[in-house]
Specification:
By secondary structure, this protein is of the alpha/beta class. The protein is built from 13 helices and 14 strands. The strands form three sheets. It has an eight-stranded parallel β-barrel, surrounded by five helices. It has a four-stranded antiparallel β-sheet with strand order 5-6-13-12.
Length: 394
Amino acid sequence: MESNRRDFIKKSTSISAAISFAGLGACTGTDSQENRTAGNNLTQWPVLESTDTPKLCMYCPYNAEERVMRRIKQIGVDYVLMGGPGVPWTEDSLRSIIDRFKANGLTIINMMIYVAPNIIYGWEGRDIIIQQVQDSIRAAGLAGLPVVEYNFYAHRLIEGYYRLPGRGGVDYLAYDYNRTGTLSDNLNWWYPEARKDSEINMAPQDLPPLPEIGIHSSDQLWDNITFFLKAVIPVAEKAGVRMALHPNDPPVPVSRGSQQIMTTFSDWKRLVNIVDSPSNGMTFDCGVSNEIGEDPLEVLDYFASRDRLNHVHYRNCIVETPGIKYVEVFPDNGSVNMFEVMRQLVQRKYKLGLYAEHPRVLDYDKEHPEKGDYAGWVYNIAYARAMMQAVMSS
């Protein structure tokens, strides 16, 4: 009896070892030809990201605790993006952040830099701040940070956002430029920084200018961003850093009296032609592209074919009126062909960050606010990885 038991344990151990080592071989991507199914040329599994594929990434604060980094690693994400510290950045300060994440198995692929109002509006002191941005870009290059992202809003009209019940009672994020509502109705936990003086019964399109910002024309803003790009893109190119401008979101034409210059496909084309360099690129957002009524695949093609695709936001929405009224939904139930977007990115060997952003607010996350919408993020990441694996194995 004891002899039979020993034989069983011995055989079980051998089988377990065989399974373990077979799995290990698959994970390391070795012996690809021998492990394919004979005659069918099936892709070896698991299908993993490589140097020539998009890099799934998640947001993580630069001062995050290790337990937060651990949660990111647990869902198979190896890359993170974040808002950077105040300018000017230094090589040492960036290296300390990068090294801390690297010690926890994460690579920082994108850091957002703050573009001050002095630059956007052409106010006094912009030359000094642009110099700080230039120094920060040089530091990024020396520290090995590949992408620096930025915004260029005259004003971001977040007052048009509101909650809309979705499937199973989940909260969708809706937008309506013409919707009349109060602060407590239109605004919610997504944008806690919203101004309290917005609590007026007025449609977002009719909100008055803010005294501290004033009104700015598109000509003024184009002059200012041209001045900025001509100052920083040559520095970025020399440093080996790619700049990625995120398009205006919400993409409304006028925000509190100021025209917006990053709300149309034509605007985005104009931007990347101001300075002809791969360092002068865009964040391609298939959701925003859909919001303004464009075909996301045409937008992707334009920037990818010109090597101006420097970051990707991967999300979905349903549009009623382009640029005016739409709803951000789950990645699987919007009108963007997410599979085809992923296929184009993979086939074109896009190899920078892919951010499956804007998770829906699930009941579980409401019940566990300390987790920071973690369940919603897991859903988005899992969907994006499934799309990537489906493309890479087809």
